[in-house]
Specification:
single chain, alpha/beta, 2-enoyl-CoA Hydratase, Chain A, domain 1, 6-stranded mixed beta sheet, 4-stranded mixed beta sheet, 10 helices, 10 strands, 17% strand, globular
């Protein structure tokens, strides 16, 4: 599929999706959100794709925020619909994707950009990265899940401070807070993401999908994550991957998972 604002490249089971609006510091507009939805939907359905890496073009920004010019004159109803639709088709969609999504944060990740990075399953940052949710400085709050995911990742108090002050933190502070898993140089960012993606791709895609469901269940209101874990654990016993994994272990060989 052809896109205007993103670039999709596939290589040996690892797909890299690059947000490509360098003149706008890769800011999220409505068209880009729709294109990202379509790309993630396609990669979820592609049996060859095992891991997805999401990044921004250039060396300045992952995503510098939302495109404010698109909604500056919205009313209450339009603003509510903007947040609801965005969460549904992109941010919640990415979080609940059955395939691992790694955010390669290569610069500014602000507002909707940090919200998108937080929707990914985990984050790796370059040492020039800066992150924050500055929405209150514009008279609004994060609307793409930022008030929910940031406290989950760094704790309520730190999230309250970051959101209320509209401050930015650097990559090392983000690492200290647990917002990112690793910090590396700009040059080594994608190679490190790819190295981790290859390690992931050696394992059972079916089991990984179950693990994502079980982990996410803990953060959903009214859902008992332990029960979901039990269900997903049991479901694994009916898969070809379980048969192959246990057989390979007993035979002292490397598993060749069929992904079923």
């Amino acid at each position: 599929m052809s896109y205007n604002n993103i670039v999709v490249k596939e290589n040996n089971g690892i797909t890299t999706i690059t947000i490509n609006r360098p003149n706008k510091l890769n800011a999220l507009n409505m068209e880009t959100i729709k294109e990202l939805h379509e790309a993630f939907k396609d990669e979820e359905a592609d049996e060859d794709t095992k891991v997805i890496i999401l990044t921004g073009s250039g060396e300045k920004a992952f995503v510098a925020g939302a495109d404010i010019s698109e909604f500056a004159d919205f009313d209450v109803k339009e603003g509510t619909n903007l947040a609801a639709k965005g969460q549904r088709i992109l941010f919640d969609f990415v979080e609940n994707l059955s395939k691992p999504v790694i955010a390669a944060v290569n610069g500014f990740a602000l507002g909707g950009g940090l919200e998108l990075a937080m929707a990914c399953h985990f984050r790796i940052a370059s040492d020039n990265a800066k992150m924050g949710l500055p929405e209150v400085s514009l008279g609004v709050i994060p609307g793409y899940g930022g008030t929910q995911r940031l406290p989950q990742l760094i704790g309520k108090g730190r999230a309250m401070e970051l959101i209320m002050t509209a401050s930015m933190i650097d990559a090392n502070q983000a690492l200290n807070y647990g917002l990112v898993n690793h910090v590396t140089t700009q040059e080594e960012l994608l190679p490190l993401c790819e190295k981790i993606a290859r390690k992931i791709s050696n394992n059972s895609t079916v089991a990984i999908s179950s693990a994502i469901k079980a982990i996410n269940a803990h953060y959903k209101d009214g859902v008992n994550g332990f029960n979901i874990e039990i269900q997903e654990f049991g479901n694994c016993f009916g898969t070809d991957d379980f048969t192959e994994g246990t057989t390979a272990f007993l035979q002292k060989r490397k598993a060749d998972f069929p992904g079923k």
